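[Q] Does anyone have a clean structure-token version of this?
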Amino acid sequence: MSADIRAMSEQLAADPSSLIFLPLAEQLLARGDMAHASRVARKGAERHAHRADVHDLVARIALAQGDETTAERAWRQSLAIAPEFGAAHRGLGFLCYRQGRWSEAETHLATARAATPGDPALEAAWEALHAARAEAESTPPAAALHAHAPGQIFDAVLGESGQVSLLLDRDGLVVAGQYLTAEGEDLGALIGAHLSGVGDEATRAMRHFGLGAWTRIALETEAATVVMAPTGDGVTLVAAPREVPLGLVRRTLDQCAALARQWLGLGA
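[A] Here you go.
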């Protein structure tokens, strides 16, 4: 347990009504301690049910755990409190988009775009949504969803290489791509939660040491190689089995990042 988490936990124990639970749960979420983060956030929501940002936190943690039902319910609680709360509209917009619920996605994304104009992830989702909706009106829904689902935008690059790729926004939410296990479970939301804020941390570290802008991070573990690059306000990530040469993983990252920038309307 880090010193910061320990100190915040002690402060919360001394004063259960303190809002320190918000940064505490955020740090636990970033560390991947989902169970602990969820407990802290839910208890906080019980005490501070009037705060829209608290329900947004519960929603993001639930989504990272793969619980879309709870995430949607919590975001809707946020909107019941603050109907124009941008973060909740953003979360619901992406969620409805990924589920092919075009009308609902359009409503939420429109409000989120008004709250944060120029956000490249929102703009890309907005354009892709309208393309998907137009296609859905002229082809069977299943075919339209397959043709435009953001989860498949990297498929042409990845092929059968055994690698996976994700495009994450600045909060770690999955904008595009997917991370499927052998059993077909999508771990994208969980991976995104683990990496929430990594781009900001890298930027701060580079600025501190006067090294300029960061262009790539590579992590080599016993089981896998993970590389990531900044893309708009977020990051593009590629993960590969450990036996895949690092050079190949890097080339795949370059290709996926270029595709992600094009998809976001940022150029090649």
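[Q] Thanks! Anything notable?
[A] Strands lie at 164-168, 174-178, 217-220, 224-231, 234-241.
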